[in-house]
Amino acid sequence: MQLLQNVSLKPYNTFGMDVVAEYFLTLNDEQLLPTITADTSLPLERKILGGGSNVLITKPVTGLLIHNQLKGIEVITEDENHVWLKVASGEVWHELVMYAISKGWAGIENLALIPGTVGASPMQNIGAYGVEAKETIESVTFWNWEEAKFTTLSNSECNFGYRDSIFKHELKDKVFITSVVYKLNKKPNLNTSYGAISQELEKMGVKDITIKAIADAVIAIRSSKLPDPKEIGNAGSFFKNPTLPVAQYASLKEQYADIPSYPVSDTMVKVPAGWLIEQCGWKGKRAGDTGVHAKQALVLVNYGNAKGADVWHLSGEVVDSVKDKFGIELEREVQVW
Questions:
Q1: The CATH number of 3-68 is which of 4.10.520.10, 3.30.43.10, 3.90.180.10, 1.10.600.10?
Q2: Within a 10 A sphere around the Cβ of 182, how many other Cβ atoms?
Q3: What are the pLDDT digits (tens) for 203-224?
């Protein structure tokens, strides 16, 4: 366990923000967490960084930054229809998806190519193309800093919502997620109805639809729309898709006949934030070294030397313009430090 000081976080966040962490520690053994907690020489202020793909760092990080490198995938039980996988929180999410597909285990194939680590999947309740992580998560284990003990919560105890969970509210900054148990299917229930998956499969000439084919389609779609962080700094979708009451959506539909939506329930619909932002003229717009991506208006980018504060300011202008035009206040999905 090596404690470093004044470490640049540029290699550790996909926005590429060159911000310094006061103290930096790489964690590859969860059994060191009690030691870190008991060490009175370490700062009490702590932040956790996984893949750095869902964070905008706007200022130097004070206190202790722990870089999560916990690894391991283990089958803990299985039956005729399901397999339960215990996965360490530092595993790369996309690699887990491809591993499951290689074994023929279904349930997370629609979530291919989502950046980040496994630990973010319950925190954010990551989702894409009609699937959310909560549908496969059985339980989440974490280290509680205040109570100095490991605790496991069941799916229902995690209070999952749209890109939301207990880890963003009651347990925010209080725990370190160490592992997640996923319940995957041996007999796939294929989901191709959301977004452009069906069209992409048709374009690919796929006749025998498998979980591998769905993942390939998702990868192709995401790759065509989203910039590679290795080429342009970004954190993927910056805003959540707003959920509106049916009556509010109907009123907007009268003004904007082509406004798209996806049903959430009998009383609520989801509207694509990217469409709203695009209608406000932001798609492809650049301000200095930051801007809105030319292919996907949901994505804010760093063209090279933008500061976190620049991206934050731009996101505020986007929020204000959407609210002025549509009466909808967008919520940022990315964590802001």
A1: 3.30.43.10
A2: 25
A3: 888 888 999 999 999 999 888 8
Domain 233-336: give its CATH code.
3.90.78.10
Which residue carries 């360490």 as its tokens? 88
Lowest mean pLDDT among 2-11, 99-108, 130-139, 259-268: 259-268
Calpha distance 57→154 (Å, rounded): 31
Q: What is the pLDDT of residues 77-92, one digit of tens each?
A: 999 999 999 999 999 9
Question: Is 132 one of the annotated active-site residues of the chain?
Answer: no
Q: How much is the pLDDT for 208?
A: 85
- Is 333 considered catalytic here? yes
CA 140 to CA 98: how far, in whole Å? Answer: 21
Q: Is 106 helix (H, G, I), strand (E, B) or coil?
A: strand
Q: Are 34 and 22 in contact (CB under 8 A)?
A: no
Q: Where are the domains of the chain?
A: 3-68, 73-185, 233-336
- Which residues share a beta bridge with 302? 233, 290
* pLDDT of amino acid 195: 65
Provide CB contacts within 8 A for 287, sequence distance 6+: 310, 314
Residue 4 makes CB contacts below 8 A (sequence gap 6+) with: 23, 24, 25
Average pLDDT, the chain: 93
Report the sign of the C-alpha dihedral through residues 129, 108, 198, 246, in that order.
Answer: negative
Q: Give the three-class secondary structure for 124.
A: helix
Strands 82-88 and 127-128: unpaired
Instruction: Spot the catalytic one: 30, 109, 132, 333.
Output: 333
Reported CATH class of domain 73-185: alpha beta
Catalytic option among 139, 237, 261, 315: 237
pLDDT at 206: 84
Q: pTM for the full model?
A: 0.85
Of 132, 163, 165, 261, which one is the catalytic site residue? 163
Q: Is 163 annotated in the active site?
A: yes
